[in-house]
């Protein structure tokens, strides 16, 4: 899967590839203080819903060792809340925090050494399971990709956005590994350029033929019949199948519907939020104006310009042809099928903004 890793637990420290510097520099950062990990999530050293979840799990394992009174659940909860405040949209963050909380609650009375060891074990488990889940999802998803197809993705839902292999890019990878002779269209994904900087980098490393385009070229290429299907990831998929993903995903879905191009979403069950009834209820992160007004430190808009920078949008479920999970492929009616797929494992408890916990 290439010669890099996204995030690892190494000798009691969290090590991650600094994604802000790709594709030109491959620099790994080592964090021994949990605050550094929380900052890294906020600042997008690491990004992508499943990777954010893994980083939070490892950050909590790290932070627990720094707590003076680890048996006091208020202290542990404060630590969890610091991670919950990093990025609001990706539900994997809250899913991972819930997992760490559950472990803590089970062993809280067993002393510092046991608590720390169990939290560390759980964080590594979250990491390792994610790779296995992506491989399974990839195999299911590849059945939807015809031989020789040109597949479009959006943003980066690859190894860099996960513990490894990727969700949407995992589907593309699996189809490639099966010898389907596919090629990929990669919109650059302004303002953070995850497509140009990260997806293009991953595809090139893998040797999968890919064409980089700007975001506003998608309609043109669909009109010309150059795109056979779309596969994207998701930060949070609601119970009814509405999909929050990187800004621009909705535009691509509308275009796909107009041109009768199948639009698929790769969603591990950790990204499906059954407690969230529909897209309206998904919190959308607003990021700094500077991401829009500046490109690599260079100002590209007049000083004082008013700016909007929502990091995600919501694609209504009627524009989604299928949702690929590690447990199988869901099609409409999503409300029924997703709750069957995600199953009893996920209770309908609200995640994300902390209400109704
Ligand atoms: O702002 P980012 O880079 O964290 O946004 C990432 C995305 O929108 C991905 O498509 C999504 O997290 C799925 S990643 C497997």
Question: Which tags fit this structure?
Answer:
alpha/beta, Rossmann fold, 4-stranded mixed β-sheet, 11 helices, 7-stranded mixed β-sheet, 16 strands, binds 5-S-methyl-1-O-phosphono-5-thio-D-ribulose, Four Helix Bundle (Hemerythrin (Met), subunit A), 357 residues
Structural topology:
Layout: E1 7-10, E2 13-17, E3 28-31, H1 34-42, H2 49-66, H3 73-84, H4 91-107, H5 112-142, E4 150-152, H6 168-177, E5 183-187, H7 194-206, E6 210-213, H8 218-223, E7 229-232, E8 236-238, E9 243-246, H9 249-258, E10 263-266, E11 272-273, H10 290-293, E12 294-295, E13 298-299, E14 312-315, E15 322-325, E16 328-330, H11 334-342
Parallel strand pairs: 4-5, 4-7, 5-6, 7-10, 8-11, 10-15
Antiparallel strand pairs: 1-2, 2-3, 8-9, 9-14, 12-13, 15-16
The protein binds 5-S-methyl-1-O-phosphono-5-thio-D-ribulose.
């Amino acid at each position: 899967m290439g010669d890099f890793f996204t995030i690892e637990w190494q000798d009691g420290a969290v090590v991650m590839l600094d994604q802000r510097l790709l594709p030109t520099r491959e620099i790994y950062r080592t964090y021994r203080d949990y605050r550094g990990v929380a900052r890294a999530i906020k600042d997008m050293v690491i990004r992508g819903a499943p990777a954010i979840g893994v980083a939070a799990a490892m950050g909590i394992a790290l932070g627990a060792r720094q707590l003076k009174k680890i048996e006091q659940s208020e202290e542990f909860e404060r630590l969890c809340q610091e991670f919950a405040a990093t990025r609001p949209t990706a539900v994997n963050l809250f899913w991972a925090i819930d997992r760490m909380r559950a472990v803590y609650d089970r062993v809280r009375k067993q002393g510092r050494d046991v608590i720390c060891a169990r939290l560390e074990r759980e964080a590594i488990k979250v990491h390792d399971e994610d790779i296995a889940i992506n491989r399974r999802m990839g195999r299911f998803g590849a059945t939807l990709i015809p031989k020789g197809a040109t597949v479009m993705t959006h943003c980066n839902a690859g190894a860099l956005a996960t513990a490894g292999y990727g969700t949407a890019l995992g589907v593309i990878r699996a189809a490639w590994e099966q010898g389907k002779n596919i090629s990929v269209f990669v919109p650059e994904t302004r303002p953070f350029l995850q497509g140009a900087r990260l997806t293009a980098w991953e595809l090139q490393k893998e040797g999968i033929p890919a064409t980089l385009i700007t975001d506003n070229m998608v309609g043109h290429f669909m009109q010309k019949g150059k795109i056979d299907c779309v596969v994207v990831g998701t930060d949070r998929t609601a119970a009814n199948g509405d999909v929050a993903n990187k800004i621009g995903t909705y535009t691509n879905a509308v275009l796909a519907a107009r041109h009768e191009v199948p639009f698929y979403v790769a969603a591990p069950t950790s990204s499906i939020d059954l407690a969230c009834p529909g897209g309206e209820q998904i919190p959308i992160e607003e990021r700094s104006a500077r991401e829009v007004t500046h490109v690599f430190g260079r100002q590209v808009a007049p000083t004082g310009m008013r700016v909007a920078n929502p990091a995600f949008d919501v694609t209504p479920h009627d524009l989604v042809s299928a949702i690929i999970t590690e447990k199988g492929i869901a099609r409409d009616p999503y409300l029924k099928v997703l709750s069957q797929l995600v199953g009893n494992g996920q209770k309908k408890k609200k995640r994300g903004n902390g209400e109704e916990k």
